[in-house]
Amino acid sequence: MTSLGIIPARYAASRFEGKVLAKIGNKPMIQHVWERAKKAHSLDDLIVAADDDRIIKVVEEFGGKAVFTSKSHPSGTDRLREIANPLDVDIVVNIQADEPLLNHSMIDSLVDTLRDDRDIVMASLMKKIDSIEEISNPNLVKVVVDKNNFALYFSRSPIPFIRDNGEAPAEQADSVSPNKAHQFYKHIGLYAYTKDFLFTFANLPPSSLEKYEKLEQLRALENGYRIKMVETQYDTIGVDTPEDLVRARATLYKNRG
To answer: How far apart are CA 236 and CA 189, in angstroms?
Structure first.
């Protein structure tokens, strides 16, 4: 099964315009993402799907492959569909352009999941939560899964709610400990789809839960499709704000140090 990695890169991000070109060290963020994704053994090709000539220029300068896509796309999924449509590929991986700390093995684990089980049409990543702040942070998406690690629900709220801990979200952190009964998981927004399902998913209308939580993946669940969640040991920092960029820079510097 052939696989294609696509990095949707939008310049006019609402909370942080031009963030994909923001420097981390001596490289723009999109270059960090490209270089890390390029190490994935499972990808047959890698393309940046851009909506702005400035992104195209930067990607080509560091030797990457970029394709201009429509500025009118409402989501990265639509940008993926435009790129994948004419290509003969079996698996498409959505690699977020604002995840400069991703590890290439995260991509490989998703592609391998779809290759190993042809009944799986969509897969994503989850990681154990180990801090109070992450559980109660609405910008960090949580996921609960069934016994086979298929997603049951994604939310910005702490899920599940541990009733015996009281009503304060921070108190849910008592269950983070390995000695407690429940382990919380956060969602890391890399996705792998079969090409056929990518088009099915992109053609579905936005769902009510998706609109409430502002989480596109809920569209699949609400329409009865299953998302296989793959646990990873690697963490990332999604850069949505200038403050996130500061954290990413500090983490990258610390890891190199």
So the answer is: 10
Q: Residue 191 and residue 151: Cα distance in Å, rounded?
A: 13
pLDDT in tens, the chain (257 residues): 999 999 999 887 767 888 999 999 899 999 999 999 999 999 999 999 999 999 999 999 999 999 999 888 888 899 999 999 999 999 999 999 999 999 999 999 999 999 999 999 999 999 999 888 889 888 889 999 999 999 999 999 999 988 775 544 545 455 454 435 578 999 999 999 999 999 999 999 999 999 999 999 999 999 999 999 999 999 988 888 888 889 889 988 776 64
Task: Give the C-alpha separation, 107 to 7, whole Å.
Answer: 12
Tokens of 124: 């994503």
Specify burial of residue 29 (Cβ count, 10 A radius: 0-12, 13-18, 19+): buried
The angle at the Cα of 240, spanning 12 to 78, to the nearest 5 degrees, equals 55
CA distance 112 to 42: 8
Instruction: Go through the chain and tell me how many residues it has.
Output: 257
Amino acid at 91: I
pTM of this prediction? Answer: 0.90
Rounded CA-CA distance 111/90 in Å is: 10
Q: Encoding tokens for residue 79?
A: 């940008």
